[in-house]
Write a structure and sequence with these properties.
about 270 residues, alpha/beta, Spore Coat Polysaccharide Biosynthesis Protein SpsA, Chain A, 10 helices, 11 strands, about 15% strand
């Protein structure tokens, strides 16, 4: 099987424009995420890591940064991530992909590998997700067949918020989940996704403490730091309700079931 990775990113973010190119420890945010995806044991070439962005000129600087890193770029629809992913998988000939979100520079490599390992162990599965991990750490792995099933049935061209629900909440794909491998990986309060200025402040604090060039620190390291310095949680901990409310407001998604009936996806 040809295995790759897909990361959706665009620079015209509503809340924190250009965040993927903002600097943490002297490097763009996207480079820290690319480090982690390229470290997966299922990725044997950085070219198989594809940043899926838009054709808008505003994303030209992102394309330049990603290609300078040595990863690949696919440019597609602005709001339709399902089509963007579908066309990228076809273009690169992937049979299965790890999918990490561009907002999550601390996506954990260990769980990328666990989701892909689980997916490959059972060929009836379409997608494997993570559960009970801190927000911003989890990834998913899914097959080309699952992508085709979603592409055939999805009915909402604007799906940049909540696109993964087509895979996980419609019954179109057989799904499995992986749980935390250790109680040390569970922390219900820490928020590790990049949407607001406060999130950027937290990421800079974490990286300034744990980052060493050429090394990738782990989820164990992050959770240990958060428990040792609980003041970190106060930096952005008040943003979660706003985050989830925005998701509920924007994720107005529909699909066609096997009988052709249009159904809404509950969020």
């Amino acid at each position: 099987m040809t295995i790759g990775a897909l990361i959706p990113i665009r620079l015209k973010s509503e809340r924190l424009p250009g965040k993927a190119l903002m600097q943490i420890c002297g490097r763009p945010v996207v480079y820290h995420l690319l480090d982690r995806v390229c470290a997966s044991r299922y990725i044997d070439d950085p070219k198989k890591v594809v940043v899926c962005t838009t054709g808008d000129a505003s994303d030209d600087p992102l394309v330049e940064a990603v290609t300078s890193y040595g990863a690949s770029v696919f440019r597609g629809s602005t709001d339709d991530i399902i089509r963007r992913f579908h066309d990228a998988i076809a273009h690169f000939g992937f049979d299965a992909v790890i999918q990490a979100d561009g907002d999550d520079p601390l996506t954990d490599t260990f769980y990328m590998d666990r989701t892909m390992e689980t997916l490959l162990a059972d060929r009836s599965l379409g997608i494997v997700t993570c559960e009970k991990l801190p927000l911003g750490v989890a990834s998913k792995s899914f097959t080309r067949a699952a992508m085709e099933a979603v592409f055939k049935h999805y009915n909402s061209g604007q799906n940049d918020t909540g696109f993964i629900y087509f895979f996980t909440k419609t019954g179109l794909c057989k799904m499995a989940t992986v749980s935390p491998a250790s109680p040390a990986h569970i922390h219900d309060e820490i928020r590790l996704t990049l949407d607001y200025e406060e999130d950027l402040v937290l990421f800079r604090r974490i990286f300034e403490t744990l980052y060493r060039e050429g090394e990738i620190f782990t989820l164990d390291d992050v959770v240990t730091l958060a428990r040792r310095q609980p003041d970190l949680l106060a930096i952005n901990g008040n943003l979660n309700e706003e985050y989830w409310q925005r998701t509920r407001d924007k994720a107005k998604l529909e699909y066609r079931d096997a009988g052709g009936q249009v159904r809404s996806i509950p969020v």
